[in-house]
Amino acid sequence: MLIPVMLFALALSAPDTGEQAKPAPKSAQENYKAFCLPCHGPEGKGLVPDMSLTDGTWKHGSTLPAVTKTIREGVKGTMMLPFKDKLTPAEIAALAKLARAFDPKFQPKAKAKAPPK
Known about the structure:
Helix content: 40-55%
């Protein structure tokens, strides 16, 4: 009984560093649902053609670094907001990979099977 009381007292006396525990990183799918789905939709088709992630047209660049930059910094004068203050660099990189995966031209091509012998 004495140990739990001592641990409780120790916890109360610990100095407050003013830092809050950072939440665990979320998966790309969780972040897509939270931040991207409202504009890009569940299948990446977008509310309007300029928002589509599926049509092979990437207005701000289709490379992984370009998509990462678009997510991180947003695009002035559009509805694409910056997410550098909401997501970690790792979360942004994972989200960029997920966004590109909606486009058929970035999906892995199936290897041709060898003809049967």
